[in-house]
Structures are given as C-alpha cells and as structure tokens.
Amino acid sequence: DEVCVTFAATISGNTKVYTSPNFKSVFTDGDQIGVFAVRHADGVSADLRSSGNYVHNMKLTYLAGAWTSERPVYFPNNGDLLDFYAYHPYEEGVDPTGIVFSVGEDQSSQSKFSRSDLMKTYSCENVKIRQPVNLSFYHTLALVHIEVLGASDPGLTATLLSCMPETRMNLADNLPLSGSGTTVEIAMLRLEEDPQ
Questions:
Q1: Considering the entire predicted model, what is its pTM?
Q2: CA atoms of 130 and 153, how far apart (whole Å)
C-alpha cells in the first residue's frame, strides 16, 4: 500500500523570508522550496547526487498553512529509508551539490527581499511512514539591519555598497558560504514596524 510523503517546514532563528513585527521568520502564501530525497537501505549510507535522486528538485508551494506539490511522492514500500534535503527559494534545474545563487540588487519590497533569502535544511531522521517530514530551514546569508533614529521622511531609503552578490551552496554540507562576483549596490527593504 503506497503512502504519500507530506511535509512540514519551519525557519529556525530570527529574521527573513517574511519579517514579522518581532523580526521572527515565517513562510507566507506563495513561498516555494525545492526538495531532494536520497533513498537507501537501513544501515547503508547514500550520497546526494547532482542528478537522478529519488526525489529531484520537487517544487513545494506554501498555501493556507500547508505545503503542496504538483505530483505526489511515496515512501518506498520495501523498507528503504529517505534522507531529505531542501532549499529556499525554489529554482528550476539546480544541481543540489552546487546551487549557484545571486541576491537581488533591488530588495526594497517584501517579495524581492524574500527572493534573496537563501536557506537550506537537511533531514535524515529516517522519517516514520504516515508522519510529515519535518524541514527546519536555517539562513545561509547575513542580514543587515539599519535603524535610523529620528527619521520622519517617508521617502528615506538605504543602500548597501560594495556587496558581492553571488555564492555557491552544496545542500549536502554545512560549510559557510562565501561571496563572489562583481560588487553591486543593494537597495534595502524599509520596515516601519517597531520590533520592541
């Protein structure tokens, strides 16, 4: 009897995707993540590959508190285990062992800001059948927060200078990411909420 895989995703730590008034991260309707799964027998390890994984860059979309996919994925019915890897934001045709990512130069709106929030997660809990796969994402890039005291100009903007916008990420490791590429200026998102 085939059992469909379901997912639950959270964001660990503070800041980003949508930054709520207390600066805590939450997913919002329309957010998309990419998911990979590696199949292996109990006690036998298996590596995430650049192609041909059991689940390969499946797009999940968040809507009304749930993650949905365009097609179902099933747990192996022979007792094999699945290790899950995931990232945000979703992109077509990525290699999970070398995702090339570039932050946006215009992050002045919530949607543009969210598209530059690169996150990843790995779950090898050998998920029990009929229970959701828990994906706890963490941020891979830094967030710069600027507080301008006494500013009342509604047109006030801030720009980050000399930023290296590109990086390369392997979902199978926990190595820190480094910036590369030609330096750019980044228009920052303005938040009116007081986090206090």
A1: 0.89
A2: 54
Q: Which of 3, 111, 97 is nearest to 57 (CA)?
A: 97
Q: Are 66 and 84 in contact (CB under 8 A)?
A: no
Instruction: Write the pLDDT tens digit of every residue in 143-154.
Output: 888 888 877 788
Q: What is the 3-state secondary structure (H, E, C) of the chain?
A: CCCECCEEEEECCECCEEECCCCEEECCCCCEEEEEEEEECCCCCCCCCCCCCCEEEEEEEEECCEEEECCCCECCCCCCEEEEEEEECCCCCCCCCCEEEECCCECCCHHHHHCCCCEEEEECCCCCCCCCEEEEEEECCCCCCCCCCCCCCCCCCCEEEEECCEEEECCCCCCCCCCECCCEEEECCCCCCCCC
